Structures are given as structure tokens and as C-alpha cells.
Amino acid sequence: MSEPVLKRGFASDNNSGVHPAVMKELLRVNRGHVVGYGDDPFTETAKEMLRKELGGEAEIFFVFTGTGANVLGLAGVMKSWNSVITSSTAHIESDECGAPEKFTGGKVLTADTPDGKLRPDILARHMHGFDFEHHSQPKVISVSQATEMGTVYTPDEVKALADYAHANNLLLHMDGARLANAAVSLGLPFNDFTTAAGVDILSFGGTKNGMMYGEAICFLKPGLSDGFKYIRKQGMQLASKMRFIAAQYIAYLSNNLWKDCASHANRMARDLQKKLREVNGIRITQKVESNGVFVIMPDRVAARLSQEYFFYPWNEQISEYRLMTSWDTSSDDVRQFVDRLEAIMSEERVS
User: Fold this and answer.
1) Residue 192 domain-assigned (yes or no)
2) CB 34 within 8 A of CB 205
3) Is residue 210 within 8 Å of residue 252, measured between CB atoms?
4) Which of 193, 226, 252 delimits the end of a domain?
5) Residue 151: left (phi > 0), alpha (psi -120 to 50), or beta?
6) Are 299 and 243 in a shared domain?
7) What residues make up the domain containing 132?
8) What CATH number is given to the structural domain containing 269?
9) Which of 233, 252, 271 is the last residue of a domain?
10) pLDDT band at residue 7 using 50, 70 and 90 as cut-offs
11) Exposed end of the chain (fewer CB within 10 Å): N or C?
């Protein structure tokens, strides 16, 4: 049987493969027997490496998926009468199939954001009903870093949200599925825009940046993780062979692998942006600050192009599409994609 032709596309950084250094580390830990469920030396090493990045008081819990990390991280600090406030484009609102509300019992409240980024003034309309039993009680503000729109919060923007949350007795949660892309964009270590900026709970992901699977829920303040080991178990996210999640973080945080992968993905997004700007009839709608490029193109062109390169519509009402680059996107991938786009645009103009 012949092997399928697997062309690199621009649909999602989830579609990329696993970095060879991660594969190598998985093979390294695949020897002998160690105690299951996280009581092994590899898991402890990975936790220590994360604490070095985030601060020594961080409590780390590995889980399988990004949805699990976000939902259980919230479940660890919310009661059923609480609410979490987030952007209308955030994964916990638009991509978790209602899991936050199912597993926390609480409510997701949203605010529309033109660039995916929350600000205190946007949140103000949800700051009411405190201590009123007829109203769900706001408990958490959740941001994505980088956002689903490809934009990045500065440390000052994160701190402003953290200060606002804490002044209202709320917590700040950060969905860090693309945390490395944000760090590279900012040119800063993780701690500067997480723990040091006031974030309380962090989902630290690497699956979109060269890892195979696995996420880390990081409680960055003492006391927030009390009882969480039971929540993780009930949430079906306790891995028996946890060393294989831990091994990926060991590789990811060693020798700047996370930075190399994210730097390349971000660089390819900027390259894609530059080339798209030269295509007549294509408009870029968002700042390209990480590895996402959002463009408006004619629907007929998008329909033809997507038959050759898989990508997703973002806002069908305005013919906006999302293009994502990955750690393994090549310059040739970008050039060939834009060349084909230009050809289709020319053909459609003639017809």
C-alpha cells in the first residue's frame, strides 16, 4: 500500500507533527519500570523545570488535553454558583463544547473584543450582582496568551487585568496553549507575563508547538491547588504512565526547544503576512504577533484554495479566514501557498 501524500497546510498548529527531540526523549524514558500516576523521577524533573520557569511556589499537575487543562483548572477554583468571564473568541467559550459549564456547574460570561484581548473597561459590565443570590457570582477572568486572534498581551496588560481581578476578589486564569509563541513575540521569559504579572492559574501547553500531547495545569499562588488531585482524577485526566507526558516537557524546556519551535512558527507567520500583502484583493485583519494570520479573501477563491491547502473560515459573514503556521512550516510552504493563491485570484478575476 502506498503512503498518503501529507501536505503541510495552514489550518492549525495542532496538525503539525512531533519534534524529533521530543520523540527522542520519549524513547529515553521508555525503559524499565517506574511508579505510575506521577510518582516517578521524570515527572518530578519536569515539574522542577516548570517551577524554574514560573516560580518556586507553582503547583504543577499534568493532564492529557488542552480542554482538560482549562476546564479542570477552572473547576479547581470555582463553585457551581460562580462564573468565569472571557472573550467571546476564547476556547473556553467557543471550542470546549460547553465543557466548562458542564464540569464546573458554573457559567461562562463573554465580552466581545475586536482583537481577542480583554481590558478592564470591557469587563466592567459583568462586575455586578456580588453577594446577590439571584445572580451567578463572578470568580475568574480568563485570558488566552497568545489570543485566538493571534495577538499577544504585554506584561502591563496582563498585570492590569490581574490587578482588576484581585481588586474585585476574582482570580486571573490564562489559557497558555500558545504560551511559547507569546513569549517569543514579547522577547521575555514565561515568568514575566505570568506569575510576576499576577496570573493565578495557568494552562501551560506545548502540543501546538512540537509536543505530541499533554498539558500542565499550574497553580501559581499557594493554596489554590488544595484538593485538586481529586478533581483531576474525577475529571479522568490522571495519566497512569505520566512519565510520557513529563518526558515531553523535559525535552520542550531543554536547550531552548520551545523557543526555537515558536520562533520559527512566528517567523513563518510574518513571512506569510509579508507575501499576502503583495496579493491584490487580500486584506489582513489582525496584527500578526504570533503564528496566526487572519485574512479576508473572496469566498470562491477560498473554496478553491482549500481543496489544495486545508484552512478554516473564521468569520464567514465577512469572508475572513484563519491561517496558522507551525514549528515545521517551511519557507517553501509559504511561497507555494501564496503562489497558488495569486494564480486562483488571477483566474477568478478573468472569469
Assistant:
1) yes
2) no
3) yes
4) 252
5) beta
6) no
7) 20-252
8) 3.90.1150.10
9) 252
10) confident
11) N
Residue 170 has pLDDT above 90, yes or no: yes
Give the closest residue to 214 by CA, choosing from 176, 253, 191, 242. 242
The per-residue pLDDT for range 187-219, each reduced to its tens digit, is 999 999 999 999 999 999 999 999 999 999 999
CA distance readout (Å), 174 to 3, 109, 127, 143, 293: 40, 16, 19, 5, 22
- In this structure, are 66 and 177 located in the same domain? yes
Element (H, E) at 305: helix 299-305
Report helix, strand or coil for 20.
helix
215-219: strand order across its sheet = 59-63, 215-219, 201-205, 171-176, 137-144, 82-87, 107-111
Tally Cβ neighbours within 10 Å of residue 27: 10
- Check whether 54 has a pLDDT greater than 90: yes
Grid cell 499576502 is found at: 276
Looking at the 3D structure of the chain, how many domains does it have? 2
pTM reported for the whole predicted model: 0.96
